[in-house]
Amino acid sequence: MHTVEPDVVTDVLIVGSGPAGASAALALSTYGVPNIVVTRYASLADTPRAHITNQRTMEVLRDLGVEEEIVAKATPQRLMGDTTFCTSLAGEELGRVRSWGNDPLVQAAHELASPTRMCDMPQHLMEPVLIDAAVARGTNLRFSTVYKSFLQDDEGVTVTVEDRLRGDEYTIRARYLIGADGGRSQVAEDAGLPMGGQMGVAGSINIVFDMDLSKYTAHRPSTLYWVLAPGATVGGIGAGLVRCVRPWNEWLIVWGYDVTAGAPDLTTEYAESIVRRLVGDDETPLTIKSSAAWTVNEMYAETYSNGRVFCAGDATHRHPPSNGLGSNTSIQDAYNLAWKLKLVLDGTASPQLLDTYTAERAPIGRQIVTRANKSIGETAPVFEALDGLSPQTPEQLWANIAARKDDTEAAEKQRAKLREAIAFKVYEFNAHGVDLNQRYPAESSAAIVPDGTADPGFDRDPELYHQPTSRPGAKLPHAWITSGTRTLSTLDTVGRGRFTLLTGIGGADWIRAAAAQDLEIATAVIGPGQEYEDPYGDWARLSEVADAGALLVRPDGYVAFRHATAAASPEDAERLLTEAVRRILGHVRLGRV
Q: Strand pairing of 305-306 and 309-311?
């Protein structure tokens, strides 16, 4: 039992203001949950860091009401996708991959899958959008405040923090604590979260700089330009990388170093030498803005919580930037957790609901750590095609690259091998299924109600292709529907912090059953002459239920319960829905926690 009077009291304390912490604050404040964010830093992110923002994350941001601001400030999808492999930006081009949904066939799949578009939103632009909206809705933000330790009991968590301006310590009492304090999370360590994998498997350097590179990039617009140069296979992410921060004059370079030898001295002269080498231009003026060393990690938490302490984002999954999964998964972690905390805090759900956070998100975290590290290894065949992995002089590498242009049988085979190796990078740059196919099995999560159907699996490669389904545990399929003169997505009928029951003509019993629940459940009827209509017939095809069937969708847009046909009677509909709700909420209704 907590006895010492704390200095500050709140419902949820969030340590860290990065993508996970900021989005947790935004969601909680949107749901009316009092929360405080503390960050050891005096400002939000001042470097680009994470940037790829995929469709699922954009759906989350759409629901949280900040999608339009993100789109206005981000680099649009059409300027992201001519991923280029070259010897330098000014040098020879080896090949391109149409990436991030810009391949015509993949673009069609993107348009069918979601009402949103992916974009490139660097972290130093993303964080202010999330935090500003969170603060406007009630979040209390404290800069220069260092997390020191926590003590938890049956009723809450007492956290000691240090004010870096005053130099003194004080305590914050919260019902729950969220550790969103990054890849070296002290909260995760103090909570004793078991980790798999390892840290520091390779070394990388980020160099942020300003340089007008329009003449090398505007005709092949891309987020990423991969440079195959001597030394590029050492550490890091498998090649030299020139990343566009803002077209076409703000950039970030990633270059590897031997982690066993330690990071080099990051002088301005050193940074400029790397930039000149990868750009291949010694004349255009450049300004080095910052440089920093970091390590490639392959680590994931096996459990995301300990009692009333929960961790999210890089605190629980640590991996290289391949596939652009880091901030996306972090934001989705927070979105998964926030609505559950809200329902537990207001007494609607049992604390058992919070157990489903680990059950649902830990397998996703492990999956994306594996995928990101696997993508690094998939760069090696590009070098292999040029015999560039074995130790050799720079002159030999350039000779190997030049040899691909010869009119010989060996050169023809080399060209084919290089094309194949570059094309295989689709698993990093167009992994639509990795972005959207996340499913939560009812066998592991009590917040998903099994409907007795067999897992359909995937008809095509689940990493490359999204396959929508309304089976419990999957994200609600997107279809364009109408309401009067408005055209909207089925995803726009759900979310906003509450459950939603979707049905059609003949589903009146389900509507009455939803109204009879203690839980707030919005309803949406889709069909001719109803509140929502399906003029294209897309929803009828994708819903996988009859008109009189029903889908109960969670606040995070995931299907929690499905009944494919009409209920046998009004009483049967109420019984089935009540049993589903009781399972999801932890079986019992408690007073305020």
A: antiparallel
**18's torsion region: left (phi>0), alpha (psi -120 to 50) or beta?**
beta
Confidence of residue 377 (pLDDT cuts 50, 70, 90): confident
What is this structure's pTM?
A: 0.96
Q: What is the C-alpha to C-alpha distance for residues 314 and 184, in angstroms, rounded to an integer?
A: 8
Centre a 10 Å sphere on the Cβ of residue 17 and count the other Cβ atoms it contains.
29
What is the Cα 467 distance to its own chain's centre? 18
The conformational region for residue 235 under phi > 0 = left, psi -120 to 50 = alpha, else beta, is: left
Q: What is the dihedral of CA 176, 181, 183, 185, to 10 degrees?
A: -60
Mean pLDDT, all residues of the chain? 94
The pLDDT, as a whole number, for residue 395 is 84
Alpha carbon distances (Å) from 200 to 155, 183, 379: 38, 11, 19
Burial of residue 393 (CB within 10 Å: 0-12, 13-18, 19+) is: exposed
Place of tokens 């935004």: 26
CB 83 within 8 A of CB 96: yes
Q: Which residues of 68-101 are buried (b: 16+ CB within 10 A; e: fewer)?
A: ebbbeebbebebbbbbbbbbbbbbeebbbbbbbb
If you count DSSP H runs as helices and E runs as strands, how many of each does the chain have, helices first?
18, 25
Q: What are phi and psi of 121, to 5 degrees?
A: -125, 95
Instruction: Report the alpha-carbon distance of residue 411 to residue 6 in Å, rounded.
Output: 73
pLDDT of residue 588: 42
Confidence of residue 392 (pLDDT cuts 50, 70, 90): low
Task: Select from 29, 254, 209 the least CA-distant residue to 131.
Answer: 29
Residue 393's pLDDT is what? 78
**539 — phi, psi (to 5°)?**
-65, -40
Cβ distance 123 to 52 under 8 Å? no
- C-alpha to C-alpha distance for 172 and 137, rounded to whole angstroms: 20
pLDDT tens digit sequence for 178-234: 999 999 999 999 999 999 988 878 889 999 999 999 999 999 999 999 998 887 877
Burial class of residue 299, CB neighbours in 10 A (0-12, 13-18, 19+): buried
Q: Tell me how far apart the alpha carbons of residues 452 and 67 are, in angstroms, rounded to a whole number.
A: 36
**Phi, psi (rounded to 5 degrees) for 541:** -80, -40
pLDDT at residue 172 is higher than 70: yes
Q: What percent of the chain clears pLDDT 70, i.e. is strictly above it?
A: 97
Is the Cβ–Cβ distance between 131 and 36 less than 8 Å?
Answer: no
- Between residues 479 and 372, which one has the greater pLDDT? 479
CA distance 242 to 255: 9
Q: What pLDDT is attached to residue 593?
A: 34
Residues 59, 557: contact at Cβ < 8 Å?
A: yes
Q: How far is CA 325 from the centre of its chain?
A: 5
Q: What is the pLDDT of residues 79-133, one digit of tens each?
A: 999 999 999 999 999 999 999 999 999 999 999 999 999 999 999 999 999 999 9
